[in-house]
Amino acid sequence: MSAVAPTTAEPDALREQPLERVIRDHVEYVVLGTAHVSPASVAAVKAIIEHEAFDAIAVELCPSRAQSMRDPEAFRQMDLYQVIRQGKTGLVAASLVLSSFQKRLADQYGVQPGAEMLAAMDGAAAQQRPLWLVDRTVSTTLRRAWRSVSWWQRMGLAGGLVGSIFDRSEVAEQDIEQLKQRDLLEGAFSEFASNSEPLYRSLIAERDSYMTARLREEAGQLAPRADGTPRKVLVVIGAGHLPGLVKQLQTQTGAPAQLCQQLDQTPAPARWPKWLALGLVLAIFATIGYAFYRNPSLGTHALEQWILLTGGLAAAGAIVAGAHPLSILAAFVAAPLKPFRPGIPSGAISAMVEAALRRPRVGDFDTLRDDIGHWKGWWTNRVARVLLNFFLVCFGTIAGEYIAGFHILRSVF
Hints:
Blueprint: E1 2-3, E2 19-24, E3 27-34, H1 39-51, E4 56-59, H2 63-70, H3 80-85, H4 89-109, H5 115-126, E5 131-133, H6 138-148, H7 151-165, H8 173-178, H9 184-188, H10 190-193, H11 197-219, E6 231-238, H12 242-251, H13 256-264, H14 272-294, H15 296-320, H16 325-334, H17 346-357, H18 362-366, H19 368-371, H20 377-380, H21 382-412
Parallel strand pairs: 3-6, 4-5, 4-6
Antiparallel strand pairs: 1-2, 2-3
Helix pairs in contact: 1-5, 4-7, 6-11, 11-12, 11-13, 14-15, 14-21, 15-16, 15-21, 16-17, 17-21
């Protein structure tokens, strides 16, 4: 394993671009670091593909992201019912926030997000070279990042994401160039990633290891040259990954397939929040039962408090989201019954009713990334309103449970 120098003079487009070369296992990896929104990076990718002959081209994409770049209209096929039923609402919302961040940069500088990755994919197709998609899926990365930090940090992340949606300030050109020094995900979470070692590890370091393992796995399928010279692979990645990936290429050991499998696993969530919530609900219902034992009218009053506060605040969340009257009713009915259907949040029930009554139109999907950048868009876009309804109803239900529990305990004891 060693670093090598190019054998010929590099084109002008490659000068001052982050570029490293590493030979490992009879394969020369030419690692080009890019900014995901940069005309210079697009030019650099095109220049190096034209300048050198490669046996394969690898990009910092997973299959789903590559498909969305190839076919932007595939987003229209998103099934909101399945998103809600499978518990992926938060992941979809986070992905939308990231795309909104990318789009803001693209609108300002006239380059589509990931244009350099598209250039690499087009180059592989034009030269009929294998294309390797080596990145971990965004959903896995976000899950591992979310699970890696404390509850308070999660609240800060959620607040930071919401704030970034409505930030309309322009991004300075020097900041665009600084994206070459960090990953796009780290750029979107910059304040938190720089101050949180677990978050940085999930967003950056783990993906360095994962992409290195994927490169080794794919390279193992390349037949050796008859003359013994190394095969050559172009690796196009965000420049924030370049130092870590180069180091991993030089030092990583272990079976690559096993490493990928380990890094693809989502850590089990902490159990104490569920046990705490369950204990609270059991204590509240035990108190209601005790109230009925002492005095039926006292028990009836406690039960009314539970229904009115949980159902009322959940319904209030739906009202704030501008939901249909039947969606509001669904929130009111579902919230008090939440303890009897664990794993199915009241927000999911209300959101599914909303999606059924006000089915998103094709135009809603087409304008979704634009609409969520303005606060009014969350109410006018039917897809965004379903997501907003989900989160506000869940928030209202949780608030109602704690407030109801406090009032019930105080009234009985």
